[in-house]
Amino acid sequence: MNKVEEQIFQAIDILFDKRASELAYDKTIQARIYSIVDLDTGEYKARYNGNIFSVFSDDKTKTYKVDEDVYVIVPEGDFSNRKLITSSVSSQSLSYG
After folding, report:
1. Which CATH class is domain 27-91?
2. Residues 6 or more apart from 39 whose CB is under 8 A from it?
3. Can you give the pLDDT at residue 54?
4. Is the dihedral of CA 49, 54, 58, 59 positive or negative?
5. 27 within 8 A of 49, measured Cβ to Cβ
6. What is the CA radius of gyration of the chain?
């Protein structure tokens, strides 16, 4: 590979790395229900890494108990966004097929 080709590939790598670092992805975390705020709105307080914050059930017919472990989606990985409980950890199956 000649020097010009190598420089072009390096430039492409730099541009790709910069663009990839700017992308925002949803993050799924495992949190523990700390308290029940309002069952009508599906709002709970959850604890994750020593922090307590509001989370909302994505299905208001599902209810969760204090100290229950749940999966929570953090949109774009930004904890200031509205966070949604997707399910209880125990209700997830690890078997496929």
Report:
1. mainly beta
2. 60, 63
3. 97
4. positive
5. no
6. 20
Q: Which two tokens stand for residue 5?
A: 């080709």
Residues in the chain: 97
Q: What pLDDT, in 10s, does the model give residues 37-89?
A: 999 999 999 999 999 999 999 998 899 999 999 999 999 888 999 999 999 99
- Is pLDDT at 26 greater than 80 in this prediction? yes
pLDDT greater than 70 at residue 14:
yes
Q: What are the Cα distances from residue 40, in Å, to 19, 44, 59, 76?
A: 41, 11, 11, 26
Query: What pairing do the DSSP bridges indicate for beta strands 84-88 and 27-38?
Result: unpaired
Alpha carbons within 13 A on the beta-carbon side of 36: 13
H/E element holding 18? Answer: helix 3-22
Domain range list for the chain: 27-91
First to last CA, the chain: 47
